[in-house]
Predict the structure of Formamidopyrimidine-DNA glycosylase H2TH DNA-binding domain-containing protein.
Amino acid sequence: MIMTEGPSILFIKNKLQRYKGKIVSKVSGTTQVDESLFAHALLIDIQTFGKNFLFLFKEFFVAIEVNLVGNVLVNKQKKVAASFSYHFEENEINFYDSEIMILKAKPSDYFNLKTDISKSEFDADFILNELRTNHAEESIGDALLNQKILAGVGPIIRTETLYHAKIHPDSLIKSIPEKKLIFLLKMIQDYAEEFLTLLKTSSVEKNALIFEKKNCPKDKTPILMEEIGNIKTYVCPKCQKFFT
Ligand SMILES: [Zn+2]
């Protein structure tokens, strides 16, 4: 079970790109939607925002948030019913255990592109201000997985970037020096890019420094696993400073 992160959604989106410009013959699934919207609708574009796929039609777009990488299947089905499926003349895309939203707007009207770690619009100054103004009392480990603050951070990006920045995930945002936070945000943006490259060429998990690893590569200290909000994070207690 691999949880999605912004770059993995982007990677799958690139594979779905061949459905751009195609006509949807119908949609189905357990999610209640106005199916008439999709009758012979032209799929204009496929984009992403954080962990959402965005399917753009003329009058609206569909945002689909997928939590596990294996929950998007093309021309294959699971035994359980899909949350939502697109049917084309000869193909289908099935989304399982996913959140579907249909919005009569443009993606940029609804999502703040400055918060998406994989977008050129990503604005570290904006995020820094948001963290220090509205989330100062929270732990950085919690804040990193809050998709409203940083869209696209998942468990691997959280673990690896906090390790690189030498910050313990339980550190309170108000106690972390500003320059450390700036470095962390830079790391997140850089690592999101590296993550996408690794998906194309190698393995993200294999190349991770401490995610699901036993010992710190630097000092051989046993890596601790903890769960924050039911999602695993890994910590080197020696390298990562706990700011309280
Ligand atoms: Zn260490």
Q: What stands out?
A: The helical segments are 6-16, 107-110, 124-134, 140-145, 155-164, 178-201, 204-207. Residues 178-201 form the longest helix (24 residues). The chain has two domains: 6-110, 113-235. Residues 110 and 228 are 28 Å apart (CA to CA).
